[in-house]
Amino acid sequence: MSQASSRVLGVMAAAPAVLATVAVLAFAARELSGRTPLSYGRPLNIAEAAGAGEVSEVLRFLRAGWDPSQVWPLRPEIISSTVTRATALEAAIWGGRQPLVELLDRRGFIRDAETRHHLACLAKDIGSDEVVAYLSPGAASSCEPGAAFAVLKARSNPQ
């Protein structure tokens, strides 16, 4: 076998591995930039950041003056196709993000007992026992099963 044909065979043997590596690197780069169907892209507001558990983005929105107790639109893939409008506090609970809930609480965004009760009931509705325990320590919250989730669902589907 000649040296030229050996090179051709070597290149042909390596080509699939090289092409596969380049394809994976290109996919990863696009995924990180938020330009593929498998990524959500950057959060559009503080509620999306909270629902996705992106604490650094939540902090960025807070520094910019966004209110986590205001109701924000959510893309269906962030929390649920039935929950498309929520506060950042609700989104953080939905995402089961206890440290984020604690952070928002420490910064004074859970402003009253009514909000705390609503959030505890939402955490109970979705089965986030750690968040329930944090929001209502030492006492089982008296919640109507499914009521807090129904509030979010009704808000998301205005008739």
What would you say this structure looks like, in words?
The chain is mainly α and 159 residues long. It has helices at 3-33, 46-51, 55-63, 88-94, 98-106, 113-126, 129-135, 147-156; strands at 72-73, 85-86. The chain folds into 2 domains: 1-39; 46-156, Serine Threonine Protein Phosphatase 5, Tetratricopeptide repeat (Alpha Horseshoe), CATH 1.25.40. It contains 8 helices and 2 strands, in the order αααββααααα. Strands 1-2 form a two-stranded antiparallel sheet.
What's a quick, concise take on this entry?
The chain has helices spanning 3-33, 46-51, 55-63, 88-94, 98-106, 113-126, 129-135, 147-156, and strands at residues 72-73, 85-86.
* Overall tally of structural domains: 2
Estimated structural class: mainly alpha
The CATH topology of the largest domain: Serine Threonine Protein Phosphatase 5, Tetratricopeptide repeat
Looking across the biggest beta sheet, what order are the strands in? 1-2
Radius of gyration: 23 Å
CATH class annotation of the largest domain:
Mainly Alpha
Helix-residue proportion: 55-70%
Number of helices: 8
Can you name the CATH architecture of the largest domain? Alpha Horseshoe
Low-pLDDT windows of residues: none
Order of helices and strands: HHHEEHHHHH
Distance between the termini: 77 Å
Tell me the overall shape: elongated
